[in-house]
Specification:
Two copies of one chain form a homodimer. By secondary structure, the first copy, chain A, is of the alpha/beta class. Chain A contains 20 helices and ten strands. Chain A is elongated, with a radius of gyration of 27 Å.
């Protein structure tokens, strides 16, 4: 994999100057076309060995193009705000919006590679991490991003020479840290691990280009030309045809679905409700204050039919919590900044730190519910969303979040009754709109979408709880109970 | 100030229940009106002594209203991302957008009060901090925010009783920390300092309501009713008439301005330019890598006539810096989320951590330039912006930022020449638009605005450098030199 980057590539100065003049003008033009076109972001990832000219190349790219529209981010040590959220949070924060170029300096590949070299993980862990990265990058590409990854390589001999040269020049000696030499001792090990990592993560959606780092002219031109070619091609051709996601299973031949087997008969008297409410709210409060919870977080998702009582149920949960440590995120159509990013971005930005509870009133499942049914996104897009959402929730769970998802459901008749009641009650009238009636007309389509959703995204660590919501008292207690038990067993 | 909150206010339960029923419905309705109206945010600040029922009140407010549209934020220890930015950054992050309610739990008043009680500061420092707060809150109010501040009070006797009661009940004992008792020992001192602080910061724009904390019913109703009254009044009356900012001085009677006394004659040959460029870029690079700079930051503002060469000058600066540690922020019209916040919000969100350089290509000065001249905001709004901007930059400087502001200027004839050149050069044509020609028609208005701006916002710690930009070579070197010298003398 690295052999072709150890053969002494170089470009003589006169040739460099001639090509540079043409290249930078073309790059600048392509950058402005991207900015005007504004349909996709460009993500450039820079990785590779120390001393191979990574920073210099990034600086040159910023000099050749208009640095106002390039967002260069270097990932050093994590801040405490980053440490208390899922691993990928810091990278989501750094994604460029459509029309812009983001240069990520040592991105999501770095940590797993170093962990493997230092033997904190084994080969299986490395493969799993790289598989996750492949899925993540595929998602970015499916969302439209143009991803270009450059790996700067030096042979062992060349690296030793380069580090020594940097060290002996007083102007550059600061650039060689002790850790660089320590890493150099591990050269062979690094090489092996990186080779595995690059092999797995070099995909059609996000290929690696290995660049020999010895000669500055060569590496600048190679990287610049690759970016120009890919950018020009994409601007000319548009987004490549999407991968065809796996087909949905046909409905069961007996026509029975999970929603049809719900028992709507359960009720609870007002008196029993009052006692139970106090008991379970008290329990939830205790759990949320427990020491163990400080290093965890709870994420509760509410989806459901219109008028199923999501709002009032959520208030029974928040009533048990300290307002300083929870947040309810009502999810409506995405805003302007959010539309410039992958669709999960707006949920990532709302993830809370440890010790907090975040309640989503509607959620990322809009992708496979309203967006699917109303045709707000293409079929391929919502079809791939199932596994993207599973990946997303896995990251939440891996970071210690306790994830619970409620689908609140009522019968079609009950919904009609509640809609009419809302229309007849002055202070409830704002809760019912034309849209609710329109959604109701598509009841069967939504039912199909819900069944597919539950089937494809209910996993042990982040289960769907299909909750009959016909009797409000019974439902609220059941939700509180379920939540308490989930948190209890997780702590 | 606190006497009327030590007289044993209380509300009997039956009265509470009757009033609560009416109040919560009215509050909920007002909240939805606010949400629909979406013209201003509500900022509720909660302060006061420990054990006076602050959290319980915040929880009740969240229960009475729709918690999905309330953003409650508690400010504990600073995160490292907050520590490396100006003190107010964490509060700007927490401001609610228009239409929403933000409950800030222990906000900007807390730290200065504690610092004074602990004798880390003196009376003069306290007064200065409180004056800053008054100006900040006035700015928020002028930007439309409805600010309500509640101070929860207990007499010394009542506080002792309350802490003991909390401590002896196993369900609430966790709520009393050792620090609470330590603070209690300082009760009298706290009382004195808080009295001064409240006196200064109780203004018409953001008044304090002192609430006796002994009786839960009383404090819930008092706070709830105050919020309802203020919210209903504001929704009915609209924004109060703005304060009239100080008038601008008349132009000097001899008609001479700072822009007319500029010496446009300086030039630099290409050869000298090359040598000087290398020298000053090297110097800037060294400075940006110096150890001392890691705890500081540099903020460079570029404003100037169209075609004065801001972009190309910025590239000469970035060319000297490591792309990982600078960022260029191009400022255009505010986006959707930005329009829901005070106008300085979009600059606060882009402030970098220590050790970084942020270059603003156009800036917050748009308020007193394009917004003034084009009438995008009311006269009162841009008139008050001068001292708001001064306050903002003072916060930057206080946090260790080295602030430098360049006004790049060319003659009207030179601009015409450059416009025409841009129109005639294919790859420069995107740089010239109808708007540039329109702006040019208002040359004199802009000139007046620039003179006022420089006169009112050039201060020693954040000076305006009026830079003749007729000769590009000379200008670029002069900008680099100025910047180096500013950083050098600051470190």
């Amino acid at each position: 994999m690295f052999e072709s980057a150890e053969i002494g590539h170089s470009v003589p100065k006169p040739e460099f100057l001639a090509r540079e003049a043409v290249l930078r003008e073309a790059l600048l033009k392509a950058q402005y076309d991207l900015l005007a076109n504004k349909t996709f972001p460009v993500i450039i990832i820079i990785g590779g060995v120390d001393g191979a000219g990574k920073s210099e190349t990034v600086n040159i790219l910023n000099a050749w193009m208009d640095p106002r529209h390039i967002h260069t981010v270097a990932f050093g040590d994590m801040s405490d705000e980053e440490r208390e959220r899922p691993r990928m949070w810091r990278y989501w924060r750094a994604l460029p919006p459509k029309g812009r170029i983001g240069i990520l300096f040592g991105a999501w590949h770095t940590d797993p590679i170093i962990a493997r070299v230092m033997e904190r993980t084994n080969d299986g862990d490395l493969t799993r991490s790289m598989d996750q990265i492949v899925r993540f990058e595929q998602m970015l590409a499916d969302e439209g991003a143009l991803i270009l990854k450059f790996w700067f390589h030096l042979s062992k001999k060349a690296q030793r020479k380069r580090l020594k040269a940097l060290e002996s020049d007083p102007r550059t000696t600061w650039r060689v840290a002790d850790t660089d030499w320590e890493r150099f001792k591990l050269y062979d090990k690094f090489r092996g691990v990186c080779e595995s990592a690059l092999r797995i993560t070099s995909t059609e959606a996000a290929p690696w280009t290995v660049v020999e780092g010895t000669d500055a002219n060569y590496r600048y031109l190679t990287v610049g030309q690759s970016i120009l070619d890919a950018l020009a091609k994409r601007l000319a051709d548009g987004k490549p045809a999407p991968r065809r996601p796996a087909a949905l299973p046909e409905p069961a031949i007996d026509g029975r679905t999970i929603l049809q087997s719900i028992d709507f008969s359960k009720t609870l008297s007002h008196r029993k409700y009052q006692t139970a409410l106090e008991k379970w709210q008290g329990r939830l409060n205790e759990l949320s204050r427990s020491k163990k919870f400080r290093r965890r977080s709870a994420i509760v998702v509410f989806e459901g039919s219109d008028a199923a009582g999501k709002g009032s149920t959520i208030r029974r949960i928040t009533g048990a919590l300290d307002a300083r440590f929870y947040r309810v995120i009502p999810v409506a159509a995405p805003g302007e900044e959010e539309r410039q990013q992958p669709y999960l971005w707006r949920f990532w930005r709302n993830l809370a730190r440890n010790g907090r509870t975040t309640i989503f009133d509607r959620s990322w499942y809009g992708r496979v519910l309203v967006e699917r049914v109303e045709g707000f996104c293409a079929e391929d897009d919502w079809m791939r969303a199932y596994h993207e959402i599973n990946d997303f929730e896995k990251e939440l769970v891996d970071a210690g979040a306790i994830v619970t998802k409620f689908w609140m459901t009522i019968t079609k008749e009950e919904q009609l009754k509640r809609f009419k009641l809302r229309e007849d009650t002055p202070f409830k009238r704002f809760k019912i709109t034309e849209e609710d009636w329109r959604n109701r007309d598509r009841w069967d389509d939504y039912e199909r979408a819900v069944c597919d959703m539950v089937e494809r995204t209910s996993v042990k660590e982040a289960p769907w709880v299909v909750m009959p919501a016909q009797d409000k008292h019974w439902t609220r207690i059941e939700v509180l109970k379920t939540l308490c038990r989930r948190i209890e067993s997780a702590l």
